[in-house]
Design brief:
- This protein is an alpha/beta fold.
- Helix content is 38%, strand content 15%.
- Strands 1, 2, 3, 4, 5 and 6 form a six-stranded mixed sheet that branches.
- A hairpin with a 5-residue loop joins β12 and β13.
- α5 packs parallel to α9 and α12 packs parallel to α15.
- The longest helix is centred in the C-terminal third of the chain and has 24 residues.
- The chain starts with a strand and ends with a helix.
């Protein structure tokens, strides 16, 4: 299956070389550029900035940018830098796709390198590409990978199976107060609003090893821990610790080995460590950070904090993270959106908060959870949609009978239940893509469904130059058109859809002008299908939230750029009350 993103995979296996794999939409290798690791870019000035970030004294966006540029320059020498910028311009600015950046550092050999806060990285000013922060830019996705760990397979869920979330809180009375109420409220709200997809397990509020083992027996897909963590113990040894609650309510510190061993029984999903230094890696010994230890238990995704972070910032990140997951977004994209949510807050890039969440991911495309299709899936459909499908079935019987009466006898009649199944399945696929805001995928699926229901192959046109040649659009069931349009309008908040396009067309005075002139105005100034110099091919459409109003759906295989007379389709929309 084709992805909606390209991949830029960075591998560092020694202190001299940087190797890159560039993959296309089908995970095929495009190129294997390489460069030199330039640790000399981490000057004394940069190392002072690193210390400021650790001590929470980084409070200027210019300092953050200097640190981010230096980290970028250390990985990307001049050749690799230009290679990445060219790739960025091609994929994001021209093709309007996303780029996944995966950083894979051999931390067994280079723990001090793996411990650097790579989430600060940004394009240097010399690149003349504007301000682009790799771990927060909406068009990029930044994650860390571990070559030493196994690649995780997606988790298949039954059609009616809910995503189980375990919220585990450890708040010892002898440590600073742990503020968790906001996350708790948001998760409870999510479980109510997404009751068909999400189940919040009983909340553990005084976490100890027995309580964790008990909740893990319920096989949560997401394990969210909120509490205190630290990298060093009382003797200043780098061992990584988490604070549980003992029998009298005080802190019981356990090391990374002990904590990670608790996940050996069951945890195939996501572990979220909302702790002070839960994501930090020791610079003196490999695999001592809590997150790294949990990754070794073959947990597919671990999200943790590499700096001590305020509870409000952690809550800001996790709330957005869960909302994105509930909408079906891949986990690394959800994490990227969570970091961007911090940027949109009061701290922006001035402090270290945006670079604090780290995601360690072993899932190839980020799609960790996949619901199976099956008979039970209909239970996720609301009653009014079921009723609509029944009505559509009856309507299609009438339409099909009329067509059979006037078509040659050699034409084979398609069973009504097959058409209804095609439409229902196709509609579900479209809605799934729209919920994920995967606009290109939704557009292609819309085209395919309309062509299939309209009995036209991919070389045909649903829109015709003359009304006498437009039988397919005239015969297309209004109920089907209405439902497709309804999904587009709803999931785009009124920005995309056939009815939106019709309103734009009419607003240009379509009824009183030359047909060709109004069409030219419509495609250029109305919906942006023409740049003023050329017709935009389907793959150059703006498949983003920032696309012009009415730009989508473009309908791949259907639009006729050489002589489309939109008025005929507009008439059909009016006939269908769109």
């Amino acid at each position: 299956m084709q992805n909606s993103y390209y991949t830029y995979r960075i591998k560092i296996e020694n202190k001299q070389d940087v190797k890159v794999e560039k993959l296309d939409l089908n995970d095929r290798v495009i190129e294997n550029p390489s460069g030199k690791l330039r640790l000399d870019k981490l000057t004394n000035k940069v190392r002072k900035l690193l210390q400021l970030s650790k001590s929470k004294q980084l409070n200027d966006s210019r300092q953050s940018k200097l640190l981010g540029e230096a980290l970028f320059d250390s990985l990307f020498d001049d050749v690799l830098c230009q290679n990445f910028i060219d790739f960025y311009d091609l994929i994001i600015r021209k093709e309007q796709k996303r780029i996944r950046i995966e950083l894979d550092i051999n931390e067994k050999l280079m723990p001090e390198l793996a411990a650097l806060p790579w989430e600060f990285m940004c394009l240097p000013q010399k690149a003349n590409s504007g301000s682009v922060w790799l771990a927060a830019a909406p068009d990029l996705v930044f994650s860390r990978r571990r070559t030493q760990c196994k690649v995780a397979e997606p988790i298949s869920l039954q059609p009616n199976e809910k995503l189980r979330i375990a919220l585990v809180i450890a708040a010892p009375q002898d440590l600073n107060r742990v503020v968790y109420e906001k996350v708790k409220v948001e998760l409870e709200k999510l479980a109510r609003e997404q009751a068909h997809r999400v189940k919040l397990l009983p909340i553990v509020e005084s976490a100890n090893p027995k309580a964790v083992d008990s909740i893990l027996r319920q096989k949560p897909h997401i394990f969210h821990f909120i509490g205190h963590g630290r990298l060093q113990d009382e003797n200043h040894q780098d061992i990584g610790q988490i604070a549980f609650v003992d029998d009298v309510g005080n802190a019981r510190w356990v090391d990374a080995d002990y904590f990670s061993s608790l996940f050996a029984r069951y945890c195939r999903g996501i572990v979220v460590l909302q702790a002070c230094e839960g994501g930090a890696l020791s610079e003196s010994q490999a695999f001592v950070g809590l997150a790294s230890r949990v990754v070794q238990q073959n947990v597919p995704v671990v999200v943790a904090m590499q700096y001590e972070v305020s509870n409000s910032t952690a809550s800001q990140f996790t709330c957005r993270f869960y909302k994105e997951l509930a909408e079906g977004k891949p986990v690394d994209i959800a994490a990227q959106e969570g970091r961007y949510e911090i940027v949109l807050g009061s701290k922006g890039y001035e402090q270290r908060d945006f670079a604090t969440p780290v995601i360690f991911m072993q899932v190839p495309d980020g799609n960790l959870f996949q619901w199976k299709e099956g008979e039970g899936a209909v239970q996720l459909t609301t009653p009014w949609i079921i009723a609509l499908i029944i009505i559509l079935s009856l309507f299609f019987i009438i339409i099909r009978n009329l067509l059979v009466e006037r078509e040659p006898l050699h034409l084979e009649e398609t069973p009504t239940e097959d058409i209804n199944t095609d439409f229902s399945t196709g509609l579900t696929d479209i809605e799934r893509a729209l919920k994920q805001r995967a606009w290109e995928s939704a557009d292609s699926k819309t085209s395919a469904l309309m062509l299939k229901i309209g009995d036209i192959d991919n070389n045909g046109k649903l829109y015709k130059d003359y009304i006498s040649e437009s039988k397919e659009i005239n015969d297309f069931p209004c109920e089907y058109l209405q439902k497709i349009n309804e999904l587009w309008v709803h999931h785009s908040n009124g920005k995309f859809g056939f009815s939106v396009q019709k309103e734009i067309y009419l607003s240009l005075g379509a009824e009183n002008q030359n047909l060709q002139e109004i069409w030219n105005t419509f495609i250029e100034k109305g919906v942006g299908w023409h740049s003023g110099e050329k017709w935009l091919p389907f793959h150059e459409s703006v498949f983003k939230d920032s696309a012009p109003k009415g730009h989508l759906p473009r309908l791949q295989y259907i639009n006729d750029k050489d002589g489309l007379r939109y008025v005929y389709f507009k008439d059909k929309l009016e006939e269908c009350n769109l």
